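Subgroup meeting minutes
Present: P.N., E.W., G.H.
Scribe: E.W.

1. P.N. recapped why we're keeping a running log of single-chain structure predictions: easier to compare across weeks, and new members can see raw inputs and outputs side by side.
2. G.H. added today's entry (322 aa).
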Amino acid sequence: MQKPMADAVLLHELESIAEDNVNRHLATTKDWYPHDYVPWQEGRNFAATGGADWEPGQSSLGEVARAAMITNLLTEDNLPSYHRQAAGSFSQDGPWGAWVNRWTAEENRHGIAIRDYLVVTRAVDLAALERARMEHVTNGFAATKEELSKYDSDFLMSVAYVTFQELATRVSHRNTGRVCDDPIADRLLSRIAADENLHMIFYRNICDAALDLSPDQTLDAVAAVVENFRMPGQGMPDFRRNGVIMAKHGIYDLRQHLDEVVVPVLRKWRIFDRTDFSAHGEARRDQLAAFLEGLAVNVVRFEEQRDRLLAREAARRELRVG
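Output recorded in log:
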């Protein structure tokens, strides 16, 4: 096996790559403002200021869109946990610190915009949303926490994880916009999804450079993340229920995770085409390939089960209408 590098060495060796990618990001991204994406004319007071509190009939969103909106917003709300992890793994100096701070500011804008939209449109139970936010942010989140102790680089584990996570979040936001049946929500979530894609590109480029610098070590981290991946919303109130709803209705499911997130990123990194792995790296790559084959089998099983479930639900609706 190739000798692994300490995180301090990796950060130093990749600093110029980070600087180039910070500059690329700043040249590519476009400023936008949350207030431009919210239908303010729909706003009105709640009971504490002489209006009426929320009740379900006020929401124009269906169950699927509400579940997805809540999940996406609570995910964005847990930014303090993500910032702590990024600052600890990437350092707060030089281009690394510049990136962490810029990324945090952009991610914070996502939560502001989604919450403003939900408050003004009364799309969800805002009291329940606030209770869930308090619980979720208080609990915090650590990506693939149980795996970090098995590998020698928090930095590589983190940069590999956020590459997949940012792309997964992009898919979730984009598909949520499509099920809202509201062009304003669709426009907002499309804007956020575009940010997430640019964030993913930064992390993907860093990890790509790390693969060139320390192939075996980086592959270990990538494989561990793929094999133990969990969405950043894991642990939030009602995450399992809302996640099932989202998966059933194509917002984020196992097929999308494999075909739109995992496989494209691994292909971009040429994981199965590289010739610079040692015998250890090649054996680890074989393990990853076997895992992906098993995941593909699980995708088919999931789709078959989902189709049967949706067919039964459709049949029950027809009986009630009849």
